[in-house]
Amino acid sequence: METELKMTTVTEWRGYKTRPFLIAGPCSAETEEQVMETARQLASMKEVCVFRAGIWKPRTRPNSFEGIGSEGLKWLRRVKQETGLMVGTEVANEKHVYEALKYGIDMLWIGARTSVNPFTVQEISNALNGVDVMVLVKNPINPDLELWIGAIERIAKAGITRLGAIHRGFSAFEKTVYRNQPNWQLPIEIRRRIPDLPIICDPSHISGAREYLYEISQKAMDLNFDGLMIESHIDPDKALSDSAQQLTPNDLRELLSRLILRSPVPADPRLLDILGELRQQINIYDDALIEILEKRMKVAETIGKYKKENNITILQPTRWDEIIKKVMISGQSKGLSKELIDTVFKAIHQESINHQMKVMNIGLETHNGK
Ligand code: PEP
Ligand code: MN
Q1: Residue of higher predicted confidence among 264 and 50
Q2: Coil, strand, or helix at residue 92?
Q3: How many Cβ atoms from other residues are within 10 Å of residue 257's Cβ?
Q4: Over the stretch 295-318, which tens digit does the pLDDT of each residue have?
């Protein structure tokens, strides 16, 4: 059963600042000077709400910089005192939580390599019980929505109400343009399932390269995400971690100036009527799609009966190859993307197979791996 979550909105967190709720700062706290100078420059920008810096760094391979440790918490406390910015860092176990709270850290985030592990998230939740601090839960490295929501629920159970999700992309086996796959449908589904949960996009860890930060940030804003977490360092090329994706505070300022912030509701109410009519058309097409799918499955079932009577296999690779090639050509000629045709027709083909499996093996349950 789903836990009921009680949350405050991001508008309450950011006080007088405007959308997006912006978290900025270096991947890692390296030296007191680097932290203070980056923070001073970021504090001069009206958009920055929280200064971030990793103190304990989860690195993929050993022998790389694994963070300055608790020493850096003093620097974050200084940032808070001298600039008035809220400060945030990553916690990966209960010791980190106690240490960070001791130094008055305002915002804790749970990293992608931690939210993947329910034992650790529970340990963190226990350490947070009854504490009033802002906590953001990054998506786990694998695209597992339930695991992400489960981690959020565990933290909510500690009584945390300034609670949010960070979308930082998902690991992929193949080399892709971005360092991590955005899989936008996951944060979109979180929005559908938990509409009040603030969602922050982390374009730095999605992109892995500064050249893509703008396009990902703009997309997140167009999907009505509440905020952005962007890594910023006074001298990115010399950064001890995530050097290729960090921006100078000046470049961050320039990126923000180019962001177009669109409103979720139209200023002109007449537009709602126009949209309403167009949405009616969409509903009609969606109903038609469902009806056609139903008819297609009925035909597939009839084919399944013949296959059963004649003892032939369900999968007919030549026929499947013929279908996918044909729809690829006709779909693309009608302006549909390869990805859409591929995803939709593979799903339809799989559904036909499932229907035929049922016809063929009445009485024998098949679970389709689910
Ligand atoms: C980070 O924010 O610096 C970090 C380590 O992120 P992630 O957990 O998303 O890899
Ligand atoms: Mn980083």
Answers
A1: 50
A2: coil
A3: 8
A4: 999 999 999 999 999 999 999 899
User: For residue 159, what are the contacts with CB-CB under 8 A and spacing of at least 6?
Assistant: 128, 129, 130, 131
Nearest atom in ligand 1 to 114's CA: 8
- Measured CA to CA, the distance from residue 284 to residue 289 in angstroms comes to 9
Q: How far apart are CA 345 and CA 329, in angstroms?
A: 13
C-beta of 111 in contact with ligand 1 (< 6 A): yes
For a pLDDT cut of 70, what percent of the chain falls above it? 96
Chain-wide mean pLDDT for the chain?
A: 94
- Please name the residues in contact with 244: beta carbons below 8 A apart, sequence gap of 6 or more: 208, 209, 210, 236
Say if residue 20 is preceded by a cis peptide, omega within 30 of 0: yes
Q: Helix 32-43 and helix 249-258: axis angle, to 10°?
A: 30
Residue 68 CB burial class (10 angstroms; 0-12, 13-18, ≥19): buried
Note the pLDDT of residue 363. 63
Ion ligand 2: residues, CB < 5 A = 27, 242
| Whether the CB of 27 sits within 6 Å of ligand 1 | yes
Handedness of CA 213, 215, 218, 222 (dihedral sign): negative
Domains, in order of start, for the chain: 10-258 (3.20.20.70), 270-369 (1.20.59.10)
365 has pLDDT over 80: no
Among protein residues, the one with the nearest Cα to ligand 1's atom 4 is 111
**CA of 112, closest atom in ligand 1:** 8
pTM for this model (two decimals): 0.86
Supply the angle between the helices 118-128 and 94-102 in degrees, to the nearest 10.
Answer: 30
